[in-house]
Specification:
Aldehyde Oxidoreductase, domain 4, 803 residues, 34 strands, Carbon monoxide dehydrogenase large chain, copper, alpha+beta, metal-binding
């Protein structure tokens, strides 16, 4: 029974714990088409719901004609806001402290708003009945620009708020104004700018985009009128929060509400909020006493579910002549659409945008964000980022490039000059964030060495000197620091519920295990990585650890998956729950080996007596003992629950470099090279990390190079199909080169920081930086996204660079 070193290594390899690039456990069912999505749910007597939507962006509802639809065979009901009023469900609270119409009440506020619902025997009858419902409107003036919405003579968009001079986040200064929120020291920052030898400013617009997950939103609601139980299968990234909201809206005790999120085909923030379709399906099931299914189509998904971005940003930097940044000042006008339905922590109506000082040691900073109503769909979400961090990183990285250009400094040089130094961590920013750890200079050197940065700059200079060169060459260099792991309850909550998360682990008598979490995967590989954490902590092979999420009847209460919080928050809960079991297992092992607990060492999968490798008990031995004959005074079983409320956020970071070649005749931009270095702290599964980075980079490429949601003056969305909305395929997607450093978080139980959102956050400003850099020699400081061939060609023409 000896356990030589090599045997320990072999056993550790067999565990496939943290650090192992083990294949994803969930992939076997997905690649065979055995996934279980909301649209796969079928129930006896199930009816189908479809939605009548407004064709205009702003108008009064004169009359809704339902008779033709109700006369159709197979149609069970047509419901409007008037039908929901007796139930007080025609309006609902939003996560941002506003209210939103479930079905349009007397007027519509945006194109494709929900006006009525049809319930029928199948989805085809329901769709036909939707066409039979006729609605008469009196059109009203439309406002789609938030700057215009704040003009004195702008039409009143939210008549339901008439006379209200304050909102959830402070006073309202205009009838279309939602909030003004700021962070930092305004007086100190203004003083710095008043005396700074160098200042630069830049206006930039970050266009409205959409997460566009593979699976659209939907639900199956089933109310049991005898038991009073409500079960709802739903595409939700936060099922426990949905349960709480549903109970608050319906009056059904939360103990009788079950929310199940089965397999989810991508979320990216789009499936955090509560949509009117969910509420209507639940109401229909309660009214009719039968299950009701609603699954939206792609046009509905892009048109009405939560958008992202739509920030009009003005940035300013103050600096010394040699490039040392002294101050940052930012003013933002944020388009929130018709209702403030952003999914942000209660205390932060602009999310965590105040991370906009980035990776830099900036002594004074202030930012102000003004939220505004317009005639667009509501629901700004953190599209694969943590609460507006993408906009913040974009802002600071563009501003640093603008400053470098004014001072004629190299991009790498000015960044290295202003980085927070390794010895400064933990570092408190001018906005009050306490960065846990980082080593930016080492990461930057690694990237510059890997791509031979001096050679790239020399090539670019030669290309610029050749007037006949058919292409322009641009080099984008970006560093970013994310703030993720939402979050500490002292800072973050939703509807008053703190953003902790949870884990329950049960070890079975034969040594296998089941773990249940309050998070919910949408493709991140939780069933694999969570099992790997437990494997390392408890010495149980990850292959025999079952991971369950998404069912509020079995999972402990958690705040869900978004804001890159799975590993930073749930991962910590897992590790600490496992350590509770580990502590109990040590007591049982000591009893079995007839020694004191302090006489035991832990090695991979067993406790052994110090100095005698032949005397040991594996976790499998201990599990059997826990259920068979535990020590006197120790309760049977081997299980634990832990709720983890983090002491701080985590701060993953990265350095990205992109090289583009722009065809001077067509404006076509080709990504020649993209090098991405990420630091997410402790790496649990390198293979999954690599996959997450590839996915995030691809989404970042889509946003920077093609995605936008344009509106005409009448509020018509001009790109709400996949014929218009850019989703890159393998043909368009560049080749990615990835790298990493490891700087563990000092306060996290396993040192992990989170990674899945970093590539999206970092890549978008990198692509823009590369495109703008191709024009920098003619004085261009910024070009707004998306960088489509046509838009780039127009810039070439404007600056006399086109061939």
């Amino acid at each position: 029974m000896n356990a030589p070193v090599q045997d320990a290594e072999a056993r550790e390899l067999a565990l496939a714990g943290m650090g192992a690039s083990r294949l994803r456990k969930e992939d076997a069912r997905f690649i065979q088409g055995k996934g279980n999505y909301v649209d796969d749910i079928k129930m006896p007597g199930m009816l189908h719901m479809d939605i009548v939507r407004a064709p205009i962006a702003h108008g009064r509802i004169k009359k809704i004609h339902k008779d033709a639809a109700l006369a159709m065979p197979g149609v069970h009901a047509v419901l409007t806001a008037e039908d929901l009023k007796p139930l007080k469900l025609h309006w609902m609270p939003t996560l941002a402290g506003d209210v939103a119409a479930v079905l349009a009440d007397e007027k519509v506020h945006f194109q494709m708003q929900e006006v009525a619902i049809v319930i029928a025997d199948d989805r085809y009858i329901a769709a036909d009945a939707v066409e039979a419902v006729k609605v008469e409107y009196d059109e009203l003036p439309v406002v789609i620009d938030p700057i215009d919405a704040l003009k004195p003579d702008a039409p009143v968009l939210r008549e339901d708020l008439a006379g209200k001079t304050s909102g959830a986040h402070g006073p309202r200064e205009h009838h279309n104004h939602i909030f003004t929120w700021g962070a930092g020291d305004k007086a100190a920052t203004d003083a710095v700018f008043a005396n700074a030898p160098v200042t630069v400013s830049q206006h930039m617009y970050y266009p409205r985009v959409h997460p566009c997950p593979l699976e659209t939103c939907g639900c199956v609601a089933s109310f049991d009128p005898i038991k009073g139980d409500l079960t709802t299968y739903i595409t939700s990234q936060a099922p426990h929060v949905v349960r709480t909201v549903v109970s608050m809206l319906s009056g059904i005790p939360e103990s009788k509400v079950r929310i199940v999120s089965p397999d989810i085909g991508g979320g990216f923030g789009n499936k955090v909020g509560i949509y009117p379709g969910y509420v209507c399906a639940i109401v229909a099931s309660i009214v009719l006493g039968r299950p009701v299914k609603w699954v939206e189509d792609r046009v509905e998904n892009i048109s009405t579910t939560a958008f992202a971005r739509d920030y009009h940003m003005d940035g300013e930097l103050a600096a010394t002549p040699d490039g040392k940044i002294l101050g940052l000042r930012v003013n933002v006008v944020a388009d929130h659409g018709a209702f403030d339905a952003c999914a942000d922590p209660t205390k932060f109506p602009a999310g965590l945008f105040h991370i906009c000082s980035g990776s830099y040691d900036i002594p004074a900073a202030h930012c102000s964000v003004k939220g505004v109503y317009t005639n667009k769909a509501p629901g700004g979400v953190a599209y694969r980022c943590s609460f507006r961090v993408t906009e913040a990183v974009y802002l600071i990285e563009r501003m640093v490039d603008v400053l470098a250009q004014k001072l004629n400094m190299d991009k790498a040089e000015i960044r290295a000059k202003n980085f927070i130094r390794k010895e400064q961590f933990p570092y408190t920013s001018a906005f009050g964030f306490e960065y846990d750890s980082g080593d930016y200079h080492t990461a930057l050197k690694k990237v510059l060495d890997a791509v031979d940065y001096p050679a790239l700059r020399a090539e670019q200079a030669a290309r610029r000197a050749d007037p006949n060169s058919p292409t322009l060459m641009g080099i984008g260099l970006v560093t970013f620091t994310e703030v993720v792991g939402a979050g500490p309850s002292k800072m973050c909550d939703i509807l008053g519920v703190g953003m902790f998360d949870s884990c329950e682990i049960r070890i079975h008598p034969t040594g296998s295990a089941i773990a249940r979490m309050g998070t919910i995967t949408q493709g991140q590989g939780h069933q694999t990585t969570y099992a790997q954490i437990i494997a390392t902590e408890l010495g149980i092979p990850s292959e025999v650890i079952q991971v369950e999420e998404g069912d509020t009847s079995t999972a402990p209460y958690g705040l869900g998956t978004y804001g890159s919080r799975s590993t930073p928050v749930a991962g910590a809960a897992i590790a600490l729950a496992a350590r509770k079991i580990h502590a109990k297992a040590r007591k049982i092992a000591a009893h079995m080996l007839e020694v004191n607990e302090n006489d035991l060492d832990w090695e991979v999968d067993r406790f052994k007596v110090k100095g005698d490798d032949s005397k040991f008990k594996t976790m499998a031995d201990i599990a059997w003992q826990a259920y068979h004959q535990p020590p006197a005074g120790l309760e049977p079983g081997l299980e634990a629950v832990h709720y983890y409320d983090p002491p701080n956020f985590t701060y993953p970071f990265g350095i990205y470099l992109c090289v583009v070649d722009i065809d001077r005749a067509t404006g076509e931009t080709k990504v020649r090279r993209f090098y991405a270095l990420d630091d997410c702290g402790t790496r649990i599964n390198p293979m999954i990390i690599e996959g997450q980075i590839h996915g995030g980079l691809t989404e970042g490429y889509a946003v920077a190079m093609g995605q936008q949601m344009p509106f005409d003056a009448q509020g018509n969305l001009l790109g709400n199909t996949l014929m218009d909305y850019f989703l890159p395929t393998a043909v368009e997607t560049p080749h990615w080169e990835t790298d990493h450093t490891v700087t563990p978080s000092p306060h996290h139980p396993i040192g992990a920081k989170g990674v899945a959102e970093s590539p999206h956050v970092g890549s978008i400003p990198t692509f823009t930086a590369a495109v703008v850099d191709a024009f920098a020699h003619v004085g261009v400081t910024h070009l707004d996204m998306p960088h489509t061939s046509y838009r780039v060609w127009k810039s070439l023409k404007e600056h006399n660079l086109a061939l």
